[in-house]
Design goal:
Blueprint: H1 2-29, H2 41-54, H3 71-74, H4 85-107, H5 113-127, H6 133-148, H7 152-155, H8 158-176, H9 180-200, H10 203-223, H11 231-248, H12 255-277, H13 283-304, H14 311-320, H15 333-358, H16 368-383, H17 386-403, H18 407-413, E1 417-421, H19 425-430, E2 434-435, H20 449-460, E3 467-470, H21 485-494, E4 495-501, E5 504-509, E6 522-529, E7 534-535, E8 544-549, H22 554-562, E9 567-574, E10 579-584, H23 586-589, E11 593-596, H24 602-609, E12 617-625, E13 637-644, H25 654-664, E14 674-675, E15 679-684, E16 687-692, E17 696-702, E18 705-715, E19 731-738, E20 744-752, E21 764-773, E22 777-785, E23 796-805
Parallel strand pairs: 1-2, 1-3
Antiparallel strand pairs: 3-5, 4-5, 6-13, 7-12, 8-11, 8-13, 9-10, 9-12, 14-17, 15-16, 16-23, 17-22, 18-21, 18-23, 19-20, 19-22
């Protein structure tokens, strides 16, 4: 009897300790979201998912993305939405608790106490720091493993085992509706459960498991406000976007991180071989190994296709998933030691990669425990003061509404339907407008001809929005009018410019045609080689569309599946001798996009509407970067077609033309008629500035007489910050007068090198410059790179430029 009491005491102690660990894991992984979105790309699409959820948009029909109807809740750092705040908190409290139970229960399957401690330590301290995709990937795999190899408590009772499997299937169904990759991984897990049931239990159970999963999916889909008829459409369109992601979104390559990842993967593969191939064989372990291997593949793609901070996804996942690979403790000691040595190797290399990437965010081996400690204190404090936290978020929203206030646009649009190009949906929401988006609501995601056509068809019929807020934006240096080109061609034909405010151009639908914009006469069609220049200067006097049919070779298909494709660029030489290079996406270039005249930024678009002279194409060629030999990933022949583009700008009067220019540059008192590319709006010391990348210039028309020039200039802080590995070596700023014969008279010149000279940092005042000219001329504000002539981080800007007549 005493022995039984002792055993019960030990058992109760284990329960209490386990509950304490669950609470610690749960409290470590609670997140409360980020401030509401404004003009940030990622924040805007997350906020868009919240809007879609509130307004019952149909996933796969009303919006096409790789996130399902519960996508807003997937991100622990989702942006604040006042209407969904408590739903969001409840989601993360509940899912955090469920995942904590899953992870702690999984710890009971680890034999070594040392390994168990390391596993729980990493769950608490590391996984809580990077809680996005890795947390769900690991939770899905761990829950399936628990269903395949349940702890004794569940094995001893059919009822308890049935409840465990049902709970796992319900969890998998719900998280499947957050992100499509979760759905894919969960489906593979359910298939594994069915295969094991077929092998070890009964065919009846093997059929019930996927059917139950399907029923749970459908119920969750309906509860989310979706129509069952749209579920297959969502899956098909998500497959299309996911399948093209590697080709369209690839970027970055850091060899040391790749090496660490490969060592970690190699170690885990050897672990799986030792687990599965040495007798006694267990069928469940083959299935678990297959699921873990598929999870590694998804984490690899999520981390290294877009190789920036995304690599944290892989390294966080690889730090913990080795504990899901089991071994038989009855095997020879040298095999067990080999297995554990491989586990430690996989974890060590993954942690090394984690700290290598995390160092850019001040997450290092020396401070990550301190950061966790601060986070758990903040989580507890926030949890007991939720109303105060919400009130602070509301204050941030109020401040952002003032900062991004668009009163003229809001007055003009009212409650009419409106869409926004290209990705600043957050600004639209801050102004309380009635969003009516194209299905692929962020243009850079229209990766394929089919997705481009879907958006084009949306704008080609009567369901198109009455207004569009337009700002020409691209990512990764892509050719600006390549993204969403079918919808863009309709915008240029059917939407009339109404006003410009704070850099946003408001367009109103006044159709001048029906259907999608038809391609004009084909002027040139030929097969070209990659890296072969094509001279089209004899066509440069007229508007042109360009289409490029670029196909992958078998090697390219393999690379795209397992990793990613090399980058393709379109190198252009303009008729004035200017050379430029833009990234192109093969799936986007098959549709004809406007190539002539060159509309490369918002200023060029305003110039197109105001009949300003724009650059025109003389020659072009397709190149593969960074090495020419990478062209073997593509078919040797590219089909190039150049066609007439018959759309002309909507006619506007001279007063409106000037208003458009003024709205384009709100940071200036005097408006330039021409600004070199690249240029974009930025902020320095809280003031809006125009970054004109060196070598660059702005041109102002000045009439004869006496004038005074004032303004501010400088170099953005990021160009010389401690985190920048390639800081600026300085920029020369100058102001000059250029006459009819291009004769130049220098009015001002100054060299800034803020990386070395502290007084050169921040906003610099342009001295008051008085000048007189006898005839009309141009005032040029010019920037030139430093001595190394390397403009990579020469982020020069101008502000408050004013030219007054005396």
């Amino acid at each position: 009897m005493i022995e039984n009491i002792y055993k019960q005491s030990i058992s109760m102690e284990k329960v209490v300790v386990s509950l304490g660990i669950v609470v610690l894991v749960w409290l470590s992984t609670i997140h409360f979201g980020a401030p509401t979105a404004s003009n940030d790309l990622s924040a805007s699409w997350i906020q868009s998912l919240a809007y879609a959820f509130k307004h019952h948009f149909q996933a796969g029909v009303d919006y096409l993305f790789t996130y399902g109807p519960l996508g807003y809740f997937h991100h622990p750092q989702s942006n604040y939405d006042a209407d969904l705040f408590y739903n969001f908190i409840a989601w993360h409290i509940i899912t955090g608790l469920v995942l904590a139970v899953i992870f702690v229960t999984q710890a009971s399957k680890i034999d070594s106490k040392i390994d168990k401690f390391i596993y729980l330590f990493l769950i608490v301290v590391v996984l809580s720091s990077f809680p996005d995709d890795p947390r769900y990937f690991l939770g899905i795999i761990a829950s399936v493993i628990l269903a395949l190899t349940p702890p004794p408590f569940f094995r001893r009772s059919l009822l308890r085992y049935t409840m465990l499997v049902g709970s796992v299937l319900l969890f998998l169904a719900i998280v499947s509706l957050t992100k499509f990759t979760n759905f894919v991984l969960a489906s593979v897990g359910v298939l594994g459960m069915a295969v094991v049931s077929w092998h070890s239990h009964s065919r009846k159970l093997a059929i019930i498991i996927p059917l139950a999963f399907l029923v749970f999916i459908q119920c969750a889909w309906l509860v989310s406000g979706q129509s069952l008829f749209n579920l297959p459409v969502y899956i098909i369109n998500s497959l299309q976007i996911t399948g093209a992601y590697s080709d369209a979104m690839s970027s970055g390559f850091k060899i040391m991180e790749i090496k660490l990842a490969m060592v970690s993967i190699f170690a885990m593969v050897l672990m799986m071989l030792l687990s599965c191939l040495i007798k006694p064989w267990q069928f469940e372990r083959f299935v678990i190994a297959g699921l873990v291997l598929f999870g590694i593949f998804l984490a690899w793609k999520a981390g290294f296709v877009r190789h920036d901070a995304h690599s944290l996804v892989f390294f966080t996942f690889a730090t913990l998933v080795p504990f899901f690979i089991e071994y038989d403790k009855g095997r020879p000691i040298f095999l067990i030691l080999t297995f554990r040595a491989l586990r430690y190797l996989a974890i060590f290399t993954a942690l090394s990669g984690l700290f290598m990437v995390g160092s850019t965010m001040n997450y290092t081996a020396s401070n990550f425990i301190g950061q966790w400690n601060q986070r758990i204190v903040n989580n507890f404090t926030t949890l007991i003061n939720l109303p105060d936290f919400k009130a602070n978020q509301d204050r941030i929203v109020s401040n952002l509404k003032q900062q991004y206030n668009l009163p003229k646009i809001r007055e003009q649009v009212g409650r009419a339907t409106v869409d926004i190009f290209s990705w600043e949906q957050g600004v639209l929401f801050l102004n309380g407008l009635n969003w009516h988006p194209r299905p692929v609501f962020q243009s850079y995601v229209a990766f394929t001809p089919s997705l481009i056509t879907i958006n084009g068809d949306f704008y080609a019929n009567e369901q198109a929005p009455e207004f569009v807020i337009f700002k020409l934006q691209t990512i990764d240096g892509q050719f600006p009018l390549m993204n969403d080109n079918e919808a863009l061609k309709i915008l240029l034909r059917d939407y009339q410019p109404v006003l410009s405010e704070k850099g946003y151009l408001l367009l109103k639908r006044v159709p001048r045609g029906q259907g999608r914009v038809s391609t004009g006469e084909t002027l040139l069609k030929q097969e070209i080689k990659i890296d072969e220049p094509v001279d089209i200067r004899y066509l440069s006097h007229q508007p042109l569309l360009l289409s490029l049919d670029i196909r992958k070779s078998w090697l390219g298909h393999l690379a795209s599946l397992l990793y990613k494709l090399p980058l393709l660029s379109l190198e252009i030489e303009a008729t004035d001798g200017t050379k430029m290079s833009y990234r192109i996406i093969p799936g986007m270039t098959q549709s004809g996009f406007v190539i002539n005249p060159l509309i490369l930024n918002q200023a060029d678009l305003v110039g197109w509407y105001t009949d300003s002279a724009l650059k025109r194409v003389a020659t072009l060629r397709v190149v593969v970067k960074p090495e020419p030999w990478l062209q073997y990933f593509f078919n040797s022949n590219v089909v190039l077609k150049i066609s007439e583009y018959k759309v002309t700008p909507y006619p506007v009067d001279d007063t409106f033309k000037q208003n458009l220019r003024v709205g384009l540059y709100p940071m200036f008192h005097s408006v330039p008629y021409q600004v070199s590319s690249p240029s974009h709006k930025a902020s320095e010391d809280g003031q809006p500035v125009l970054m004109v990348h060196a070598l660059g210039e702005m041109r102002f028309r000045v009439s004869a007489g006496k004038h005074t020039l004032t303004g501010k200039f400088g170099i953005l802080k990021g160009a010389y910050s401690a985190e920048n590995k390639y800081p600026t070596d300085g920029v020369e700023f100058s102001a000059l007068i250029q006459g009819e014969k291009s004769q130049e008279r220098i009015l001002f010149k100054r060299f800034l090198n803020p990386h070395i000279v502290e007084p050169d940092r921040g906003l610099q005042n342009l001295p008051t410059i008085s000048f007189e000219i006898e005839q009309n001329a141009e005032l040029v504000l010019r920037t030139h790179p430093g001595a190394a002539n390397n403009p990579q981080c020469d982020w020069s800007f101008w502000n408050a430029v004013r030219i007054e007549e005396n």
